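Troubleshooting entry. The earlier prediction with magnesium ion gave an output that would not parse, so I re-checked the input for stray whitespace and re-submitted. Clean input:
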Amino acid sequence: MLSEFDLIARYFTRPLRPGSAAALGVGDDCALLSPAPGHQLAISTDMLVEGRHFFAGADPALLGHKSLAVNLSDLAAMGARPLAFNLALALPSADEAWLEPFAQGLLALADSHGCDLIGGDTTKGPLNICITVFGEVPGEQALRRSAAKPGDEVWVSGTLGDARLALAALLGELTLDDASLAAAAPRLHAPAPRVALGLALRSVAHAAIDLSDGLAGDLGHILEQSGVGATIDVDALPAGPVLSCQRPELQRAYCLAGGDDYELCFTAAPAMRDAVLAAAQASGTPVRRIGAIEARPGLRLLDSAGRPCDIPLNSFDHFATP
Ligand code: ADP
Ligand code: MG
């Protein structure tokens, strides 16, 4: 059986990349990080708990990927460049058949974003994966939730709802044919954080947030922190390719309150429309304009004919459900 230190050495200790922002990685009491001069550190933590955020027995390679992806998504939403991350792991046992693919999935995504694993903690316990990411953003350029202004347009990247659709099928809430489930499941299990778009939106967008709990709730955080409201055209929402084959009410509900999308929702002045499209093109990320920020508080949902839509929305809240 591997010891704690063998486990760390074998799976989570690698040389730092050349040019790494980390001056010291795994092995000492602390790692050392040197952000570029004039930059601020952007720091975020996300925890994934077995039975809460993923099913018991989930594929370890996908879990490794997703654990880091959800953290990188937070950096993307601030317009921050990923530098490094810490990994705190509680494991029921030092099972190499689990650790090997977990580390592979985790570190493959880390490598693709030039993000070094620089430390962490390892303990025995119910499976729990907690990552803290460190990114950098030039001073005053972070995309804050509090920066939306009346008159801004509201944009969303990529497509929405396919992750929630896959989850619904896996929970038996609805049935999907095998091909549809196979097409939707990667959105749930292997999200692609929109880091390149976040970087391209620096000094283009005003406010931004990543969509983890559903568009209506997450946009609601921007509205609240910015002291504004918004009107959204529900017919402009970019439903995922699999969700697009479902009935319209389900499309709307999952686009607005599905969760696990890991797309970016952001606001920008109308004069920046071309700059937003250029950022989307430069980062290879589709974006769609879905509404506008207004001074009047609250979120108003209209269809493309301008009729108000009454859609029951339950954004995800860990303490609202048993
Ligand atoms: P300490 O006793 O100071 O907390 P540990 O013995 O827990 O140190 O860890 C030894 C080294 O291994 C530290 O540099 C720590 O950051 C690193 N480390 C521990 N667990 C992990 C992990 N899961 N992934 C990466 N590095 C880790
Ligand atoms: Mg420790």
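This one parsed fine. The first strand starts at residue 22 and ends at 24.
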